[in-house]
């Protein structure tokens, strides 16, 4: 009996010692699992768009070594300059129909009346130049070229800016004397050309920006090339109206 008691006392002492050691032991470290890093979403800016609603893939007339853009009005003769300006004025009278552009038609009618002789002479001069280049069958290439001239000025994306400049020109044309027709035609055609050159410059910048975007964000450009300017055909008159 005494032995049993001793054993219980000894066992109890061991338990007490172990409990004391356990109480003195340092607490187990708490493992804190950090949250996952936030997901970094890559921002992809929208792809650059063509200016003023123009189609993608447009082929812009290049600029020559002399800095002259190779449009239908590049390096033309004085009589062709007069006739191309008259054609541009005609396009403006037919297409610039907003109320704020009403003076264009008024100015155009006065322009035809005041400069009837000079315009007739320019028309004959253009015929002569085409005849020299193409012989007796000059009518068809002349009409083909003039169709390009009319389509050039009537290009829809630039028509708004074109009409604004044509309005200024039409008001100035009222005071132009017949002897000053060649000089006025050249200066006015140059101003109208600036509308298209500015558009072409902005389109060239868009093409560069789009190519950089494609190289960074898309291995293959989604935009097919357009072979030429897509504009509605406007058949020019063969004689002055």
Fold and architecture overview:
- The longest helix is centred in the C-terminal third of the chain and has 37 residues, at 181-217.
- The model is unreliable at 227-241 (pLDDT under 50).
- The protein is an all-alpha fold.
- Helix 2 (78-95) packs antiparallel against helix 3 (102-114) and helix 2 crosses helix 7.
- The protein has helices at 2-24, 78-95, 102-114, 116-134, 139-153, 159-173, 181-217.
Please describe the biggest sheet, giving its number of strands, its sense, and whether it closes into a barrel.
none
Number of strands: 0
Structural class from helices and strands? mainly alpha
Q: What average pLDDT do the residues reach?
A: 85
- Listing every helix as H and every strand as E from the N terminus to the C terminus, the arrangement reads HHHHHHH
Number of helices: 7
How far the N terminus sits from the C terminus, by CA atoms, comes to 141 Å
């Amino acid at each position: 009996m005494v032995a049993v008691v001793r054993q219980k006392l000894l066992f109890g002492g061991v338990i007490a010692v172990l409990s004391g050691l356990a109480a003195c032991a340092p607490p187990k470290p708490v493992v804190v699992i950090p949250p996952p890093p936030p997901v970094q979403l890559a921002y992809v800016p929208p792809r650059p768009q063509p200016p003023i609603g123009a189609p993608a893939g447009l082929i812009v007339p290049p600029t020559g070594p002399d800095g002259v853009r190779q449009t239908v009005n590049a390096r033309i003769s004085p009589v062709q300059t007069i006739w191309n300006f008259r054609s541009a004025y005609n396009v403006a009278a037919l297409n610039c129909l907003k109320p704020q552009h009403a003076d264009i038609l008024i100015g155009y009618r006065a322009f035809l009346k005041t400069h009837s002789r000079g315009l007739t002479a320019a028309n004959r001069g253009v015929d002569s130049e085409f005849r020299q280049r193409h012989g007796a069958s000059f009518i068809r290439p002349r009409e083909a070229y003039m169709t390009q001239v009319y389509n050039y000025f009537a290009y829809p994306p630039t028509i708004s800016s074109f009409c604004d400049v044509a309005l200024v020109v039409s008001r100035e044309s009222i005071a132009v004397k017949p002897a000053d027709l060649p000089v006025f035609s050249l200066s006015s055609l140059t101003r109208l050309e600036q509308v298209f050159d500015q558009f072409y410059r902005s389109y060239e910048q868009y093409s560069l920006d789009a190519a950089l975007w494609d190289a960074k964000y898309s291995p293959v450009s989604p935009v097919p090339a357009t072979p030429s300017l897509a504009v509605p055909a406007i058949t020019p008159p063969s004689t002055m109206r």
